[in-house]
């Protein structure tokens, strides 16, 4: 599932000021017992600052899934910042 998260900015990402970086965000299901990375749930581009304990709804194919963020991981590869979220299904 790939989606564009609509935030308070309804502008094209290229039109946003530099202090609102739109970042590729991968959301994965967290293993409830080991905390490892599980099934890929969604990919979004967002300027939102996700934090642990945030809750959000993912909707795709007529199904709505509520998840709680348990871990936020940022990765810099030298040219771009990437974010991975681990989320528990509620």
Number of strands: 6
Low-confidence stretches: 1-9
How much of the polypeptide forms β-strand, as a percent range? Answer: over 45%
The major beta sheet can be summarized as: 6 strands, mixed
In words, what does this structure look like?
With 90 residues, the protein is mostly beta strands. The chain has no helices and 6 strands. It has strands at residues 2-4, 23-30, 37-46, 55-60, 63-76, 81-89. A 6-stranded mixed sheet has the order 1-3-2-6-5-4, with no helix packed on it.
Keywords:
about 90 residues; mainly beta; six-stranded mixed β-sheet; 6 strands
Produce the secondary structure layout.
Layout: E1 2-4, E2 23-30, E3 37-46, E4 55-60, E5 63-76, E6 81-89
Parallel strand pairs: 1-3, 2-6
Antiparallel strand pairs: 2-3, 4-5, 5-6
């Amino acid at each position: 599932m790939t989606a564009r998260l609509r935030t308070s900015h309804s502008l094209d990402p290229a039109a946003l000021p530099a202090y609102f970086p739109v970042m590729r965000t991968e959301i994965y299901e967290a293993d409830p017992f080991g905390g490892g990375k599980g099934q890929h749930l969604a990919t979004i581009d967002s300027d939102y600052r996700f934090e642990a304990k945030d809750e959000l709804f993912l909707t795709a194919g007529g199904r709505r899934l509520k998840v709680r963020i348990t871990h936020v991981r940022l990765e810099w590869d030298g040219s771009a910042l990437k974010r991975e979220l681990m989320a528990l299904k509620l």
